[in-house]
From TrEMBL:
This is Endoribonuclease L-PSP. It comes from Sulfobacillus acidophilus (strain ATCC 700253 / DSM 10332 / NAL). Pfam families: Ribonuc_L-PSP (PF01042). InterPro entries: RutC-like_sf, YjgF/YER057c/UK114. It comes from the Bacteria.
């Protein structure tokens, strides 16, 4: 089995639930569902665009910690609590990925781990070495 690189952002949920923010095995990287939770606080309460930007910034930072970039992302999955906000969420996603064009999914879910969270995003990257 290839060596694994695991990173954490220090979120209390990571230790409480028992997961890594990102895991790299070989050239494959999986980034866990990521929300706008930074430094113990929810960023952009009530603002789906701001929360999406924050989550994608955390994903970008996590990828970089394992030697990947946004350009390596081949898939994102977006879980949103109000699909009527899809344009704001899509706008933020496009700002990060308009030139990369990974496959993506956006689905509405009943709720996330905290009711003030509006968006959770997963990412998969394949590093071209």
């Amino acid at each position: 089995m290839a060596d694994q690189i695991k990173i954490s952002t220090g979120s209390s949920w990571e230790s409480q639930v028992g997961y890594s923010r990102a895991v790299r095995i070989g050239n494959h990287v999986e980034v866990a569902g990521t929300t706008a939770f930074r430094n113990g606080k929810i960023v952009g309460i009530g603002d789906a665009y701001a929360q999406t930007v924050c989550a994608l910034e955390i994903i970008k930072e996590s990828l970089e910690k394992v030697g990947a970039t946004l350009s390596d992302v081949v898939r994102t999955r977006m879980f949103v609590t109000d699909i009527s906000r899809w344009e704001d969420i899509g706008k933020a996603h496009s700002e990060f990925f308009q030139d990369i064009l990974p496959v993506t999914t956006m689905v509405e879910v009943k709720s996330l781990i905290n009711p003030e969270l509006l968006v959770e995003i997963e990412a998969v990257a394949i590093i071209n070495e």
